[in-house]
Amino acid sequence: MRDEPVVLGIETSCDETGVGIVRGHTLLANTIASSVEQHARFGGVVPEVASRAHLEAMTPTVERALERAGMRLTDVDAIAVTAGPGLSGALLVGVAAAKAYALGLGVPLYGVNHLAAHVAVDQLEHGALPKPCIAMLVSGGHSSLLLVPDVAEEVVSLGSTVDDAAGEAFDKVARVLGLPFPGGPHIDRVAREGSGTAVAFPRGKYDDGTLDFSFSGLKTAVARWVEARQRSGGAIHVPDVAASFQEAVVDVLTRKALQACAKYGVDDLLIGGGVAANSRLRAMAQERCDAAGVRLRVPSPGLCTDNGAMVAALGSDLVSAGVVPSRLDIPADSSLPITTVHV
């Protein structure tokens, strides 16, 4: 194994087939085949459709990544794959493919945690992670606060969503407002033309003394507000509603994140996951971190959403740390806990 191993990462936890290749912490390729258009007419991800799309996209996506990196399969030193959490069928496609590649090439296999990979990916842009750091992961299925002493060895859960994750709330509110799926990018776009103070939507668990999140009540409040306006014949200015909803989500997320930094005496905050691409979240987080003296790290939007580069990045950390590779009979675990970085 070279000092800076070449790791190929495979990500299939939801609706995107991602393949990334890294050498150490240098990104060589990051290719994605998305099936989001196939799910859009259903207003959400259909697990069986996602699984079939992964199956069809796997080999072409690996080939595109190798071509982009200027490599052959035989140049790869290790295979990393998302083993969980995620959709069971989708995970199975990626895990099976990774096992086949690892066995065929005679290289080690590393099954990794999807959420920990969202933390590790930032190193491809901003260098090694501070030890420790606080990480806030916000996506369609997860809203979590983590203490990360070392992403290759230990991740500690500090808080998580008790109902809808932030990304779920974005999708559901977008549907109420007549915006396309996935809702996050469309709400972000429309909200730029609205006022975040137009409607006083509630902030769930804002002052409850925990580091947990709740967005179900906010989602319902938006739906009830829209229904009430429709019944009364009042005008609904979608940009104002979108901006006010987004402001409520971002206010809670950044408040809790900085509470975690203060509570654990950590001066470095990392934000990852698909919702980390939201422009208002990035702006408010920077404002509040600057005021609190906390250093903020956020990957570029293309590395926030699910991708193979993040899996390869975490795999590279595991190889460098001398972690024992996974067995070839590792399962795909849809409910893999965040505290399990490697299986």
From TrEMBL:
Localization per record: Cytoplasm
Pfam families documented for this protein: TsaD (PF00814)
Any one Gene Ontology BP term: tRNA threonylcarbamoyladenosine modification
Domain Gcp-like: 27-312
The keyword Iron belongs to this UniProt entry's keyword annotation: yes
Signal peptide: none
Residue numbers binding substrate: 137-141, 171, 184, 188, 278
GO molecular function annotation: iron ion binding; tRNA N(6)-L-threonylcarbamoyladenine synthase activity
PANTHER family: TRNA N6-ADENOSINE THREONYLCARBAMOYLTRANSFERASE, TRNA N6-ADENOSINE THREONYLCARBAMOYLTRANSFERASE, MITOCHONDRIAL
Name by which UniProt lists this protein: tRNA N6-adenosine threonylcarbamoyltransferase
